[in-house]
Design a protein that fits this description.
The complex is a heterotrimer of chains A (about 350), B (about 350) and C (about 375). With about 350 residues, chain A is mainly alpha-helical. Chain A is built from 14 helices and 4 strands. In chain A, helix 2 packs antiparallel against helix 14 and helix 8 packs across helix 9. Chain A is globular and about 55 Å long. Chain B has a two-stranded antiparallel ribbon. Chain B is globular. Classes of the chains: A mainly alpha (about 350), B mainly alpha (about 350), C alpha/beta (about 375). Chains in contact: A-B, A-C, B-C.
Chain lengths: ~350, ~350, ~375
């Protein structure tokens, strides 16, 4: 049997419902369904600009972008794991902190280049261990990445003693952290660059196509003779590389790194991905949508801090927004089908 | 997923073949092996784990109780990420209502309500459980902070709390007793009650479950109510035993209970698994943690070790080994592709 | 959901046979992995036996009292919420163990990661192990009563460090040594009031992690003192950050946007690392931090240079070495009966204020 034809057929079948929905949806509702997150973000920004003191200022734009960059880079990378139908990568918490500490601890001693090599070597290990266990051993991604989180943070804390590492003043890390084009910090360009690269990788390459098809139907993809295991390793590698980049950006932001710096990145990144509209069932979603999700969460968080809302209400709001966003998404899709 | 629990299947005759099918059908293998290995090592190195058995069991109960409720959901192929936040929020509810006779039912009711809300979003609205419960994870954790005003809240009746931590008879504290009651109740429910047995069908092949007339949505409600209720019960236990509710309670619970369920052989995509497996998984983790604690090994090293054991446990799943052995054989030239699949 | 999966090849029986062969194949790697797990846990266990054995031999050889070696050896379980995973913990544990060894105290350390329930469980295990004493660094200061009651019932003395227990629980312990957390907040407020010197000033406040005991006590100490003693200082906004510079930088930047930089005259952060982040937020706006009244707590390796550079007016020294050295001393006095039950001792670490005047003194050299 010709493998390629089979796979294309399978994919065609799998994507049929979506195509049908798109065609049948008419008018405003379909537009809402397609662009929900974009509209919410626009409305949020518009309302806040008038109602919230200090929101509409260049300084605050910088602050929002600074907040968005590290978590955004993680989320954009993790979108690959989510689209491939593997829930999430919990170990990004360990990966970001490991990279951050390596960039400062090693970077101070041996320079940025050696540090970058070391950090990416570490991410290679993370990506391969996670990917092989999930891809080749068919183990569950949640537990595999939980295990690598334990191992990674354990090792990091063992070797770093939990100290806060700070970069040399005026060192390359600090310079990057300070670099700005107008109000836009350098980290934003990293976020945009990786979003564009990963978006092209997902939509224009064979690898991206396979990641998506794997999420749509694991068995079909495998039966078509595709080496699915390698695709999964690839998805985890993309996530690991992104997390390392995020570690660099985040460490540069305050010119410090500590093993606890990325606490909560796992579920926060997932929240951004989901709010952006990527399906955790796998197969559906895009990197650009994740970027919108990240911006939404960052703007929301910024607004809540600006108006002096305490931590508890911030969490509460984030939870409700997730439920609302997803409910609206699902409902508009359902209505669109009728 | 077409791999479902083999209901019935071909009858094997003879004692050993039948035993083999029984064992082959069980999912707890790894958990049992892990537990045996740990116990064997400890018998030589840390006999204290056995002399301090009540404490060890108490630890198992602490880890396991939430995992038991979670398993009910996992059997259906759903996930509940909100268990730890439910625990924290209900724990705070126990503390902020002065009269325990009202506070405890209120907290438990809250667990049920959380389960209903989760199930509503999943079964009625049609959101993936992973996402819906992620929303609840944040919302309830926020609620715990809001209700407690972001500080630890002591319960009004401190003596009742302290009494709750004392053994009822022998070494059995209320926590241990409740843990085993929950275990027995859920175990009986999923093995003896029709509605509970249907959990496996819902998780194994949802379409088939619909077709055979199983009220899938109602089962999802049942499952999430169990999970929510048990988490809330754990929250009540936590608060009473500590005599204080902390909004950060249960920070380690979510991932630990997932680990217990998975080590116990429960299949996260549903249909395969058992409550006994979760009990075994929780026991392995509990004994391991007690032993590592007594050994005084540095905590980062402990965590690395726990992670390594988790990783080994998860990649030695029979289906993982099958997958990998198929891969190996697929690369050998004298085998045909068909067989490898 | 239509199934896209075609039935896989082979009859039922063939597949079954295949499965069985595979199940035997599984055994080999499974056994190997089990063995490796065994070795892994064996390694951990080996370490354990070593420590306990050495303790035993010591105690047996030291039965007769000699002048040189410690008179007795004591087993103490140290129930901490942090350890080598955090800078303060690791710089505290080093002198703790060193001084403990001199005094003949063998510590078994635990780390509950600020989970009060986990710490209670560890306490239960510790009590069951029947040590000579328990050293408790509460994960949550108000959530220790069950642990104290259990230790009391078993006749095991408890010494508290770092975060003191409430007055109702105090009689169940032999004493406390460590920082005066509330007092640190007060001291930082005193520095702030001193720096501001009667001027009308609005400040922003960065607290520690939400729900954390130290964060709450320092917040209360600072707020109470400012309210009572220098009403000219107004706290415009406050937020929690997670003790990290990056987290503090983010919330500080947001609070500055909200209040307007022109309305802000100062910053208080509950920890020097967070001061560092807040200072960066100011500098990112092109401001000179030395134009602002800034105080912190800790005198850490990040904070001390800030004081020297004039970016931070002052901070309050929290010495991990002081705490680590003194804790075994007091524990030893309890174990030898010098401190009896009932005469509770409270030994506060001196809350030394560090400003530009004394920041270079060797006594306040940063430790963590």
């Amino acid at each position: 049997m010709d493998k390629k034809t089979t796979l294309t057929q399978q994919m065609a079948v799998a994507q049929e419902p979506e195509k049908a929905i798109v065609e049948r949806k008419t008018g405003a509702l379909s537009w809402v369904a397609q662009n929900g997150i974009f509209i919410f973000l626009a409305v949020l920004i518009l309302v806040a600009s008038f109602a919230v003191n200090g929101f509409a200022s260049l300084e605050n734009l910088t602050s929002i972008l600074n907040r968005a960059a590290p978590i955004g880079i993680v989320a954009v990378g993790m979108t690959y794991v989510v689209i491939s139908g593997n829930y999430l990568d919990l170990s990004v918490v360990a990966q970001v902190a490991t990279a951050g500490v390596i960039f400062l601890a090693v970077g101070n001693e041996y320079g940025l280049f050696v540090a970058a090599l070391a950090a990416f070597a570490a991410s290679l290990v993370y990506g391969i261990v996670n990917g092989v266990a999930v891809g080749y051993f068919k183990a569950n991604a949640v537990i595999v990445t939980l295990a690598t989180t334990y191992i990674g943070l354990g090792l990091l804390r063992f070797f770093s003693g939990g100290s806060i590492f700070f970069g040399n003043p005026d060192g390359p890390m600090e310079q990057f952290g300070q670099a700005k084009l107008g109000p836009i910090p350098a980290s934003t360009f990293v976020l945009l660059a990786i979003t564009i690269v990963l978006s092209i990788l997902l939509t224009r390459t064979n690898f991206g196509f396979l990641v998506k098809s794997f999420g749509v139907n694991e068995k079909a993809t495998r039966l078509a003779g595709v080496n699915t295991d390698r695709v999964i390793v690839g998805a985890f590698l993309v996530t690991a590389f992104a997390a390392t980049l995020a570690g660099f950006v985040f460490a540069a932001y305050s010119n410090t790194a500590v093993s606890t710096m990325s606490q909560g990145f796992d579920f926060r990144a997932l929240a951004a991905i989901i709010i952006g509209g990527t399906s955790v069932f796998g197969g559906r979603g895009s990197v650009l949508r994740t970027l919108l999700g990240v911006m939404f969460v960052s703007v929301l968080n910024n607004i809540l801090v600006l108006v002096g809302i305490s931590f508890g209400y911030q969490q509460l709001a984030l939870g409700i927004i997730i439920l609302l966003a997803v409910t609206l998404d699902v409902l508009s899709r359902k209505l669109g089908e009728k | 997923m077409t791999e479902t629990i083999q209901l019935g299947g071909a009858k094997e005759t003879g004692f050993f073949p039948r035993l083999r099918t029984i064992i082959g059908r069980r999912t707890e293998g790894r958990g049992v092996i892990l537990l045996l290995v740990i116990l064997a090592v400890l018998a030589f190195t840390q006999p204290l784990v056995f002399t301090a058995l009540p404490v060890t069991i108490g630890r198992i109960a602490l880890i396991g109780i939430v995992a038991l409720g979670l398993t009910a959901v996992i059997l259906m192929g759903e996930l509940d990420l909100s268990v730890a936040s439910t625990l924290a929020a209900s724990g705070v509810v126990v503390a902020i209502i002065p009269d325990l006779r009202i506070a405890i039912p209120a907290a438990l009711l809250m667990g049920i309500v959380v389960g209903i809300i989760n199930a509503f979003f999943i079964a009625i609205v049609g959101i993936a459980s992973f996402i819906a419960s992620l929303g609840m994870l944040f919302a309830l954790s926020g609620l715990a902070f809001v209700l407690s005003n972001e500080v630890p809240v002591s319960i009004a009746n401190q003596d009742a709390g302290l009494a709750f931590g004392q053994p009822l008879f022998g070494p059995v504290t209320p926590r241990i007793l409740l843990f085993f009651l929950v275990f027995i109740a859920i175990q009986l429910f999923v093995t003896k009650v029709k509605a509970g047995r249907e959990f496996f069908a819902v998780g194994g092949n949802r379409q088939a479950a619909y077709d055979s007339g199983i009220p899938v949505k109602r089962r999802i409600f049942t499952g999430f109510i169990i999970s929510g209720f048990v988490s809330a019960l754990a929250g009540v236990i936590y608060t009473l035993e500590l005599t204080v509710a902390t909004p950060t309670a249960g920070s380690t619970v979510l991932l630990a209970s997932f680990a217990a369920a998975i080590i116990g052989g429960n299949y996260l995509k549903g249909g395969r698994g058992s409550i006994i497996g979760t009990l075994i998984g929780a026991s392995s983790l509990g004994v391991l943690q007690v032993a590592l604690f007594l050994s005084g090994v540095q905590v980062p090293v402990q965590n690395t070790l726990i992670g390594a054991i988790l990783l080994i446990a998860v990649i030695t799943d029979p289906s993982s080994l099958r997958a990998i052995s198929a891969r190996v054989r697929a690369t050998l030239p004298d085998r045909t592709k068909v067989e490898a699949q | 959901m239509p199934s896209l999966t075609p039935p896989s090849g082979g009859t039922q029986r063939e597949r079954k046979r295949g499965k069985m062969r595979k199940s035997r194949l599984i055994l080999a790697p499974a056994a190997m992995l089990a063995a490796s797990a065994l070795i892994l846990s064996g390694c951990a266990a080996e370490e354990t036996t070593e420590t306990t054995e050495s303790a035993e031999t010591e105690s047996s050889s030291d039965d007769t009292t000699t002048e040189e070696a410690p008179a007795e050896t004591f087993e103490v379980y140290a129930l901490f919420p942090q350890g080598n995973d955090q800078a303060y913990g690791s710089t505290l544990i080093e002198p703790l163990q060193a001084n403990g060894a001199e005094l003949g105290i063998n510590f078994t350390l635990s780390n509950s990661g600020y989970d009060a329930t986990k710490q209670l469980a560890e306490c239960e295990i510790a009590v069951a192990a029947q040590p000579d004493g328990i050293m408790l660094w509460p994960a949550v200061g108000s959530a220790v009563r069950p642990c104290l009651v259990a230790a009391d019932n078993a006749g095991i003395p408890v010494w508290v460090i770092n975060t003191d227990v409430g007055p109702a629980d105090a009689p169940l312990t032999y004493g406390y040594s460590g920082p005066d957390t509330y007092g640190q907040g007060v001291a930082s407020a005193e520095l702030m009031c001193e720096a501001v010197d009667g001027e009308e000033v609005g400040i922003i406040q960065v607290n520690g992690a939400a729900g954390n005991g130290t964060a709450i006590d320092r917040d209360n100490g600072f707020t109470d003192h400012v309210e009572a003693n220098c009403p000219n200082v107004t706290i415009l906004a406050e937020q929690n950050a997670d003790w990290t510079p990056a987290g503090a930088k983010q919330v500080a930047a947001d609070m500055i946007s909200a209040e307007g930089i022109e309305n802000i005259g100062g910053i208080y952060a509950a920890d020097d690392s967070m001061v560092d982040g807040a200072v960066q937020a100011l500098e990112d706006l092109g401001e000179d931090a030395s134009d602002y009244f800034i105080t912190g707590i800790g005198n850490t390796k990040l904070g001390n240079p800030l004081v020297k550079e004039g970016k931070m007016y002052g901070t309050v020294f929290q010495s991990s070495v002081w705490e680590g050295e003194n804790a075994p001393e007091y524990m030893h006095r309890v174990l030898t009966g010098e401190i009896a039950k009932g005469d509770r001792v409270t030994a506060y670490m001196p809350s030394v204020k560090v400003t530009a005047e004394n920041a270079d003194d060797p006594e306040v050299a940063p430790e963590w």
